[in-house]
Fold each of these.
Amino acid sequence: MNYWKEFSKGLLSDNPVLVMLLGMCSVLAVSTSVINALGMGFAATFVLVMANIVISSIRKIVPSNIRIPVYIVVIAGFVTIIELIMKAYVPDLYTSLGIFIPLIVVNCIILGRAEAFASKNGIIASLFDGLGMGLGYTIALCALAFFREVIGAGKLMGISLFGANFQPALIMILPPGAFITLGCMLAFLNKMQEKKAS
Amino acid sequence: MREAIKLGFFLLITCALVGLGVSYTNALTAPIIAESEKLVQEQGLMEVYSDAEEIKDETEKYLSSEDSVLKQVNVAYKAGKPVGVIYTVESKGYGGSIKTLVGFDIVSCTITNIKILSHTETPGLGAQATEPWFAERFQGKSATADLEVVKQTPQDGNEVQAITAATVTSKAVTLGINEARNHFQVNFIEAF
């Protein structure tokens, strides 16, 4: 079993956001600033890794006809834990992410990895799979947020970049900007892949 | 039948274990969360009315429970005497309700400061209401007459300039402040 392969596939070749287009709801909503993207990425990675470990370790004893409810309960448990931790230690971030933290429960990346990978593979492989997928999600989210925050608000990590005279393109911060940026990123990546293949 | 009981039992065990983990985390974080929430609120109150020795929540004394805009009344005391009042108001903005703190000084009968606690306004437009320059437009305004939102530079003492391209938000914040101002004038200025 090649752990590096399990880890690295989530970063680019099987990236959950840019290649599999999973979990779009939270991606489009929280990518308005890089700080939000980092916070959301970290929370999702934590849940992904922990859920993958637990689900992989109980994969042989879970009766197959109730596996989905069992996975959901495990995932919901970890989401609540990270929610409480964020509320206690990073309340500002928690307020700005708002409803999207509890909504990690229904993020299809996490259930997708549980069903497609953790329920069929060993604990350590699942750990690396979760870590890679989580990091891939975070990277995609941060890249999206980088363009949206710089163009749409003239800021990076909350720091103004261009001075007071800069007129930001508000559309980039609003929902349409998320679609436009994501579309451009996907087109660019597809073009790169095409070049590689030919 | 046997199978159903077995499956149900398995789910029960899973839920119990997860519940145990969650309640353990809750027990660890609950005091920290309560403390940080209290701190945030106290800091907000101090920001809106800084010259106080003690701030008491007197909502029950001044408000009936079905008031739609005014949510909380905090009275600021100095040397045992009330010197200021801080209201929490909730008004309807462009994207949802806007929660605002507004402070009044009893002696000078003016607005000391305002602070937006929470909102769901459009980023880059209405969300600018949280910027300090918007709060500055209210500071020092007299609490004897209703404030009016204008789009140009204010001429009159009771005029407040709206945020460009966010008139609805500016009006919503001002509406909340006017409700508080009215209540303040009736209960704290005319009563004394």
Note: Chain A is about 65% helix and 0% strand.
Amino acid sequence: MTRSELYESLLIALDGIRSRKMRSFLTVLGVIIGVTSVIAVAAIIDGLNRNIMERVQALGAKVFFVTRIPLARFGRLPEAIRVRKYFTYDDARVIRESCPTVEIASAFATRAVFFGAPNDIRYANERVDNAILRGADPNYNAALPIFDTAQGRFVSSYDMDHTRFVAVIGQAIASSLFPNVDPIGKTVRLNGLPFEVVGVFEKDTGFFGGPGVDQFVCIPYSTFHKLYPEIKEHFIAISVRDARDLQAAADEVVTTLRRHRKVATNAPNDFELTMPDFLSNLWNQLTGALVILTGVISSIALLVGGIGVMNIMLISVTERTAEIGIRKAVGARKNDIRAQFLIEAITLTSVGGVLGILIGAAISWTVRTLFPALPTYVSVFWIVAGFALAAGVGLFFGFYPANRAAGLDPIVCLRHE
Amino acid sequence: MPDLRTNLALASASIRAQRLRAFLTVLGITMGVATLMAVITLVQGANTYVEQKIANLGTNVFQVGKMPFASVNFDEFMRARRNRDVTKEDLEALREACTACEAVGSETSTVTRVRYQDQELRDQTLIGQTANMAYIGTRTVELGRYFTELEEQHDASVCLIGDSVRSKLFAGLDPLGRVVRVGKDEFLIIGVFEKIGAVLGQETDNFVIIPLSVFLRLAGQRRSITINAKASGGDRIFQLAQDQVRLVMRARRHITGDKREDFYIGTAESYISLWQQISSSFFTVFLMLSSISAVVGGIVIMNIMLVSVTERTKEIGIRRACGARQVDIMRQFLTESILLCVAGGIAGVLLGFAAALAVRTLADFPATVKLWAAALGVFLSSGIGLFFGIYPAVKAARLDPVVALRTE
């Protein structure tokens, strides 16, 4: 088909649509509603996913964790996991020494409600309960950039070597303890013991109700271990220079730890590796079924709209039988007739697709403005997909009517009243 | 009413005249209604699942414990950890004082290993129960018997095992009368429970039940127990029993006035309401999304009816010329659109239920088929037919008979 023929078909299609305004509008309306619901739902889901992705980025794509117990697991831990050997601070050194790809290996321990006991931190008359206390070594925040300080400094190796009583506190803690004064250099009481505040972390509220850096207090690991020797659960954060080395580093760490912890050759690992994508994996695992279900339900409307298109196209073919006969009589081939009706169907649904995308984007914008907790996001992918879907519906549901029109016998057509 | 019959005859004749068109028109409604039905059935099924499997306390039973029974509030959990333990003394006091309660029992649990000869099962739940939990609880003994009050009082080393313990340790054997090692102690098996099956993917049959007194002796007295009280005889008695329990517990813990209670009372209702709290927003979204396709189906109907009116202008003109009033024409077309919609609705209900049934058979999910949902589906589709049929019908009725007759 040449370009002029295509243009001709398009003109005929537009003419056909224009001549029956109400009918075309209603036909398109079904497609519009279908595309709108797909786009709006995709925008909400995309928005939530982006939230997670940002969090993953913030944690860093170059860091993974080694733990004794799995980090994301529901229900009671089986005995085989509970009896595993604890990690020690020294294991981080072993990893540093025997894994060449690893840049930083930093062991840390945590004291919080589920790991020992809750912590309270006081300054003057102000008090914060439920702070998460973490003993970290000086290169901890190099491995986990989310723990960067906004004010002051992080724990130094001098603090570490001399078991100093210094603390870096989260933004939320800082603002409730020190509403009007500069926290740096002040002495707070952490579980009753005096600590000098040397730094404040950058703001991080955490997400979906989970704790963020805002609720953390970091003290030198040596001090932590001296005060709370009963806390044996250690985590090791491992970062590599380049995200591409991640898998190599993970393999090295596994080999090293298996040897170091004397795991038999045929036994499974007695520790867990948590790779940077665990958060998004967990999220997908939790919401995957819901997302699929929502997607399926919202696309059914589009399908119903497509059926409407098919029905109207069939009627249109019947009504224009005489016209088809004349076109055939003056030399139109089967392909021309087929193209004419197909293009009409696709034009209808494409118009619906464009309008649906616009309305869907408007809805998602409204949702974002009204509910800031739902950061909807209309991605280019879904705009393209929405349009392609609409055009595809036109192609699919227009094919049968177009074929039927093309297959008509010109003589019968011409005789048709 | 002969008028209705005429209308029906006319409608079905015109539908039959255009089979493919009618089929496609109906298909939209069918898919919309089918989606709606499937969603309603799945939602219902999920609710039933929660009611039967998770909030399964037994009829007229409520619980008293240290921790909240159904809560997603993290702070509340944190606070509750410092609550005073619910003890055996509390149990005794409630047995004394709760006159509205039929039975007051208790249970508590921990994790243990179970061994028989050379086989050992790890991560089994060890449950300590009072003897009357046989009456209060929902587990049914399949083989053998429950332990008695006397056995409980005398700290008898007897136990009952769950179905998975039986099948793993005693495949092909009769477990009754055999001795298993639970933790470090030996117990005589006197009963086996019926299979419960997995709940939320968690195995629930991997347990051993021993008398509460024995449990406390072995696992230590310093732990909180969960008291289960049964009070049958209507809502008033049930409420009265809860009030009595609350009064006794408050008195024992010296909680006066509006001071916060350091114990929780849980009923099946509290689980169900928590579930509804969590799930209602999802379900609303699902229902809204699925009703969108029903609306699109309605638009398709309207469009087709409009076309049909245009095509049959001449017929309308003749009918009007022969004495049909505007109302008659309107009824004719309304009947046709409603008939289409109802047919589509019924097909949709059937299809939706078939989908739900398939889910139930394939995925062990109680997707219950409810009559009201079916009625709703048919009602909804006829509503759609009425709503979207009005405009075309009015348009048909308003046609000027002279002009209509003249149309080619």
Note: Chain A has three domains: 3-55+281-415, 62-101+238-273, 117-229.
